[in-house]
Design a protein that fits this description.
Blueprint: H1 11-21, E1 23-31, E2 37-48, E3 54-63, H2 65-88, E4 90-96, E5 101-104, H3 106-112, H4 122-128, H5 134-147, E6 151-158, E7 164-175, E8 181-190, H6 192-245, H7 251-276, E9 285-287, H8 289-304, E10 308-314, E11 321-323, H9 325-342, E12 347-358, E13 361-362, E14 368-369, E15 372-381, H10 388-391, H11 411-421, E16 425-431, E17 435-443, E18 467-471, H12 475-487, E19 491-495, H13 498-507, E20 514-518, H14 526-536, E21 541-546, H15 550-555, E22 565-567, H16 572-584
Parallel strand pairs: 10-12, 18-19, 18-20, 20-21, 21-22
Antiparallel strand pairs: 1-2, 2-3, 4-5, 4-8, 6-7, 7-8, 9-11, 12-15, 13-14, 15-17, 16-17
Helix pairs in contact: 6-7, 6-12, 7-11, 8-9, 9-11, 13-14
């Protein structure tokens, strides 16, 4: 016995204690003849003689090795369970009904963010549940008690530090043979990260669908703008030709003036459509938004009116951006008009700028932005706000929540197109009765030698019988432009197809001074036509025409940067100036 091992105790100390007390009760480890170590429950007392001296020992040893192994296995199982619950972010609980006791696993305390001495009472636990979810939680617990079937549901808890966590719970009630409730068992899992991941996936999916939808609308707007450009050009040309043929006192003169004004206004709408489609002609430069906005405050206050207070808060040391100043003006004007329309009587509009460094972030609205440095331009109003069903459509061309006679519905669509064209993004927060905030993210500009846009001079003059080969696949525009050039003093040969034009040039009977051609045509584009004409008549000069901006056409390789280009719709004066400029070059 004295040679036994005493777990957790010094053998010599135990020996002295046995001799002094005359007995021992506890666990010892002994070795059998075969060398196997066994756990023994040992109990012994000393036998004394007449003089009180120890004469011997009486004891009982019981082999508890199997029990010890079972207890060790149980402890390991518990450790494994605790580890598994921590890895799975879940905890278990059990409510013993007859004893009215509640057990929580260690992981539940961690999930709820409470200490180990947290009181497990109905009131204290209910206080941790989000107020908006308590009624639903009680209904589900009652459902489990009454049905006897497993019940799954989700709710939110509020930790002591204010953090909100999403919990998924599975509970089941157990009954005895008589149907009496014995206990209620449950598992809670913290699914906050899973919910956030699901939200991000849904937001990304919604963003993708939205981007595809807006891209489709952009293509539609682009097609409409191109066809509309041709029609508007015809109207402008016909109106201006007619005005030159009439005296100012003619009764029709005033009507033609109004027709021309309406056509010019329509041309502006076309430019807005192209802006939405990302094909607006731009002349970007390095800008400090604070200085640009400062210079516009007077205009914006006049635009908003006296009943609306406008304030501007610009961040110091604001990063520069690279954008066309006219586009920034369009963005601010359209956002302020939108704010004005949202404010019924009196209100406030606040414009702010700040530098922001973003990582890959996703908001519930589906807003996604590429990581990087941005200048954030925000326009906030305290107007009526917008419901979610309106927010889904606000950037679509021609969409407006106002009466049809109070706007074209192109303002916010133009803003969207400008922001996208400049590799930025736009985010909207809005709530009915609260107001709206439009956050425009523009990339920080870092000097990298970007090219500067050039300009082509123009001289207003009429022709002197020069021969012009005019190529346009739209018949009405071909006839209108031909008549205008003839009116300006040129000899015009109109052609509806590039093939027809090539035959005339190859024939050689007419030495053309100028080839004026549309760029985008079926079978053969304007650039190929010009190259083949120059091979036949090297002295011919070229003027390209298109409804697309020159920069857009150039980026797609349809024309070179250093060419003469006239954008549709054009006026008679612009046509005269450009043709004379090309012929004199």
């Amino acid at each position: 016995i004295l040679q036994s091992e005493y777990p957790g105790r010094d053998s010599e100390q135990v020996r002295r204690a046995i001799l002094s007390s005359g007995g021992y009760k506890g666990e010892v480890i002994q070795t059998t003849k075969s060398g196997r170590r066994i756990h023994v429950d040992s109990r012994m007392v000393a036998r004394t003689d007449a003089q009180g001296e120890i004469a011997g020992w009486i004891g009982v040893n019981r082999d508890i090795t199997e029990r010890h192994q079972a207890e060790a296995a149980l402890q390991q199982s518990r450790r494994n369970l605790v580890q598994a619950q921590r890895i799975g972010n879940l905890g278990s609980w059990e409510w013993n009904v007859p004893q009215s006791t509640l057990f929580w696993s260690d992981e539940l305390y961690r999930i709820f963010g409470v200490p180990a001495d947290f009181p497990l009472t109905y009131e204290s636990i209910e206080a941790t549940i989000h107020p908006d979810d308590r009624a639903h939680n009680n209904v589900k617990v009652q459902e489990a008690l009454e049905s006897g079937q497993p019940v799954d549901f989700q709710f939110r808890i509020v930790r002591p530090d204010g953090a909100i966590r999403h919990i998924e719970q599975h509970i089941i009630a157990e009954h005895d043979a008589r149907g009496a409730l014995v206990c209620l068992v449950g598992i809670m899992q913290d699914i906050t990260e899973r919910r956030q991941a699901e939200t991000e996936r849904e937001a990304l999916r919604a963003r993708l669908v939205e981007s595809e939808r807006l891209e489709m609308i952009g293509r539609l707007a682009d097609g409409i703008a191109r066809d509309f450009n041709n029609m508007v050009t015809v109207v402008i040309m016909r109106a201006e030709l007619s005005l030159r043929l009439l005296a100012e006192g003619d009764p029709s003169y005033r009507h033609l003036i109004e027709i021309n004004k309406a056509a010019q206004h329509s041309a502006g709408l076309v430019r807005q459509l192209l802006g939405y489609a990302g094909k607006q002609e731009i002349a970007p430069k390095t800008l400090n938004l604070n200085a640009t906005i400062d210079g516009m405050l007077g205009l914006l206050r006049e635009l908003l009116g006296e009943e609306i207070d406008l304030s501007f808060h610009g961040a110091s040391n604001l990063w520069p951006v690279y954008i066309d100043p006219t586009q920034i003006e369009q963005v601010l004007v359209n956002l302020c008009i939108n704010a004005r329309n949202a404010i019924s009587t009196t209100g406030r509009v606040i414009i702010t700028t700040t530098n922001t460094e973003t990582e890959h972030e996703v908001w519930a609205t589906g807003f996604v932005i590429t990581p990087g440095d941005y200048v954030l331009l925000s326009v906030t109003d305290d107007g009526c706000g917008m419901a979610s069903d309106i927010l889904e459509h606000i950037f679509e061309p021609f969409y407006t929540a106002r009466p049809a006679d109070q706007g074209s519905g192109l303002g916010l669509a133009t803003v969207y197109g400008i922001v996208k064209q400049n590799l930025g993004d736009i985010q909207v927060y809005s709530e009915p009765g609260i107001g709206s905030t439009f956050n425009v993210y523009l990339p920080r500009f870092r000097a990298d030698g970007l090219p500067r846009a050039g300009a082509i001079g123009a001289l207003l003059a009429e022709g002197n019988g020069e021969a012009i080969l005019l190529v346009e696949d739209k018949a009405d525009l071909l006839h209108s432009t031909s008549e205008a050039l003839h009116h300006l003093g040129y000899v015009v040969t109109p052609c509806n197809t590039p093939e027809e034009a090539l035959q005339l040039v190859a024939d050689g009977r007419t030495r053309f001074d100028l080839l004026m051609t549309d760029i985008v045509m079926p079978k053969m584009d304007g650039r190929e036509l010009a190259a083949r004409c120059l091979a036949l008549q090297p002295a011919i000069k070229c003027l390209y025409v298109s409804g697309y901006p020159a920069q857009f056409i150039s980026k797609r390789g349809l024309i070179d940067d250093e060419v003469y280009f006239l954008r549709k719709p054009f006026s008679l004066a612009a046509l005269a100036a450009m043709v004379r400029d090309v012929l004199r070059s």
